[in-house]
Amino acid sequence: MKEKSVLIQDQEFISNALKLRFHPITVTEGKGCYLFDENGRSFLDLTAGWAVANIGYGQESVAEKLKEQYIKLSFTTQLSAPSQTMTELAEKLIEMTPGDFSKKVWFGHSGSDANDLISKLVPAASGRPKMIAFMGAYHGQTMGALSLSGHSAQAKFEGKGNVIKLPYPNPYRPFSGISEHLTEQTIHFMNEVFSTICPPEETAGIIVEAIQSDGGVILPPDDFLAALRQICDQHGIYLIVDEVKVGMGRTGKWFSFEHSPIIPDAVVLGKSLGGGLPISAVIGRQEILDSVTAGHMFTASGNPLCTAAAIETIRIIEEKDLISQAEKNGQYFLEGLRSLQKKYPFIGEVRGKGLVLGVEIVTDRLEKKPDPVKTSAICYRAYELGLLIYYVGIHGNVLEITPPLTISREEITEALHLLDQTLQDVAAGHVDWEQVKQFSGWA
Ligand SMILES: Cc1ncc(COP(=O)(O)O)c(C=O)c1O
Known about the structure:
The protein is of the alpha/beta class. Helix content is 38%, strand content 15%. It has 14 helices and 15 strands. It has a seven-stranded mixed β-sheet with strand order 4-10-9-8-7-5-6, with helices on both faces. The chain has a four-stranded mixed β-sheet with strand order 1-2-3-13. The model has no long low-confidence stretch (mean pLDDT 97). The site of pyridoxal-5'-phosphate has 16 residues, from helix 5.
């Protein structure tokens, strides 16, 4: 009953603007890969809270570091009185990020404010007004980040008019209907844009996700990022990669762009960087990061607690070798999902890299028509069976699997078993549609 009261209070007191709900869960505890509700029910979490809890829930050493840090220095505004945890973290991030050039780091609180920095500083640094971004991209909800985004979740507001959106090369749903030479098609489209509404000499930067996650776990062709890098080099345009969701080891490398032979001019981090505490960062060329003084400041940016948590999070990822685990366990998970695909004709495609995996739900495999209703029913039924999973995608029909990187083989086997049961139930019509309808998801 207590659980119900939280939901009622949530309905009464909490703004709908922050709600993205798939089932009626409330949580009181988290340990490892499991969340617990007020009745002690456990849920195997395949979401990591939208890819934040990469190191799992309740890592004791983070708690210790936080206590230590709070007692030593609970706060300083790094804008005016910097302290050592911020500079230490910055140095580490510079070391981790490829690129043999002078780099600097900016800190914020969320992926959105970090991408807002990109929207301000990249044009400022280059003296060019325009930016290029991609349809389906999710860069955040604040005005600059929203303007760079091409996701339906940002379509409720008008962004700034200086951003041109190109189709993202989606091999499963190619924008031209033709899946061959998808990178070339995209570059051809870009050249058309350059020769009409967005001259390259007026274009400051291109921002891209190396894997579009909220866009539907879309993996572009292998040569895509290299082609973008080449275009940028040709025209003196900055290339920015948003690693907020799939960075920090999730794909089997620190950063997902490292699967391609490119070096970005700036990299955007957030979500999992703080192991659950809010922190974002942009690591990039000094000329971009220093292009403005006192121009993108948040009082608590880089605060001692969040930076201490991030330093410890990185240490844990290194110590537990979570990056290679993500690669190996991701492969195991992918194979398990592919076996489920053979059983259920409404699974159109299974794809992913490391521990970011997508299961595309369609009416039937040949027609590929997205089935968002079935997708939301799957999320709901999974919740009833003790498995947490969300969906993404501009058509609202891709189950997104981004568990903590600490997930074990046994837990993956359990997740596959629960997912199998879920799919079987949904296929058999064992769905409480009245309940499902109450959770609007991304709508
Ligand atoms: C790739 C990417 N960039 C930026 C953001 C925005 O991050 P935040 O919600 O922390 O503002 C998200 C959030 O899902 C994201 O997936």
